[in-house]
Amino acid sequence: AGGHAGRRGESLIPRPGRRAGCAALLAAGAAALVLAADSRPCAREPAPLLARRWAEFAAGRPGRVIFARPPHMFLLDLSTGSERQIPGVMVAGGPGRRLRGATPRPSWAPDGNRFCYRYDRRVYVCDREGRKRPILNPNMDCSDETRWSWARRGEGDWLAGPGRNGDVILVRVADPRDWLTAHGAGDVDKFCEVTGDGRFVVYDDGSQVRVAPFAGRRPGLAISRGQSCRPSASPVDRVAWLAAAHDRYRIHAAADGRFLGDLLAPPGEEIYRLSWSNLPGFVAHMFGSKGNTRMHVRDVGSGAALFIGCGWDPDLWLGAPPAP
Fold this sequence. Notes:
4-stranded antiparallel sheet, globular, single chain
């Protein structure tokens, strides 16, 4: 079903330190079935098999994926292969240009216990049991298509996203009245993220993807050659953007814009809405913009892909490896 840990795209990124429909249905009883957003069935591997493949893929690290299957949000525990609906959390979105802009775009906190997401023009912080509260600040742009992502500065938790004035702003989780400007040139269109080390901002200005030092006041360095699509920030000083054909994310050094290589879509698929995990070597993404919602987690260094089921906007968190 295309979910083997050994399935590989191609990548030019050195390993740090060391359009098709859904898959054919497996034999009865061999897979759990979920519905993709395009209403066609999508085979999800049995939980024990997915857990074994994940253990091989991530060298035994625990892993969690938060994702949407509107109108609900789900948590997938990769270590067991089991998924569950998060109680009390409603989300919007679906296939098609208008509906897909309303999907929740969740983002894990670095500890993997809370996440933020967008619904009905508000951003919420929520834990794994569904206890949630809105993050309210009048400077936040929470309109469709925007994504707010978790950011750490010192010991504090912040959410990073677009301000109403075209800047990138950070809003403190503990007290949303407290906010600061992460990029102040006023040239941000919709999409923006801050690298996990807090040193750089990547954003689109409506015609280009740009990268800039944190707290800068000038337009950033253009890295996308006239394209402006879905910038993504790594936990370290790497950034990426989606090529127009949806066949690859192009990865650059944030400090100088140097091109490092491509992360290609899995064979026969698109790559869309890539989210970097809390570790620089792993990402998650979905299939594409046209309604097919197959999700994968990826090893950035090798390009290996692990199919994990169907849903919108997957975000991946990984824990520490097991003790030797």
